[in-house]
Each structure stands twice: as structure tokens, then as C-alpha cells.
Amino acid sequence: MNTDGTPGGVLVLVADRTREVLASAAAVGPGADEWISEASVAIRASVPLRMLADVVHPFPTFAQSYEVPLRDLVSQLNPA
């Protein structure tokens, strides 16, 4: 369920393991045309995944959908 009460969407994030940055992203769902911009800027600027995973999003917002997948990517790249 999205923050506006509509059924959920899909967010796919792909990381570059060597550089530990976001390499690609895809989004499908309500407002995806707006919240995919966060990934677009991160890819273009080569923002480190650790920094992206540390971003606190306002609540409620569609951009919150990045929080869990980014944390998962960071943990996969840097297993404990």
C-alpha cells in the first residue's frame, strides 16, 4: 500500500559492486514518474550507496520506498 492509500508499485535498484553506487533503477506505480528522480540524480552523481541509504525521507512520501531496498543493497555489498 502506498502512502496515498493506492495499491503498491515496484522499485528495482541495481548496484555497481565495484564502485558501490547505484547503476540502474526502474519504478512502476502511482507517482513513479516523480519518485524515480531520486535514483536518476543518484546515478548521474555517482552517490555512494551508503550515503543514499542514510537519507531520511519525510513521511508520508513515495520516496520512502527507497529506504529498505537501499539498506539491503548496502548489506549485500558489505556482508557483516
Give a short summary of the structure.
The protein is an alpha+beta fold and 80 residues long.
Task: Write structural notes for this entry.
With 80 residues, this protein is of the alpha+beta class. The protein has a single domain (10-77), classed as FAD/NAD-linked reductase, C-terminal dimerisation domain (Enolase-like, domain 1). It is built from four helices and two strands. The chain has helices spanning 32-35, 37-45, 49-53, 67-77; strands spanning 10-16, 21-28. It has a two-stranded antiparallel ribbon. Strand 1 (10-16) and strand 2 form a beta hairpin. The longest helix has 11 residues, at 67-77. The radius of gyration is 12 Å and the shape is globular. It starts with 9 loop residues before the first strand and ends with a helix.
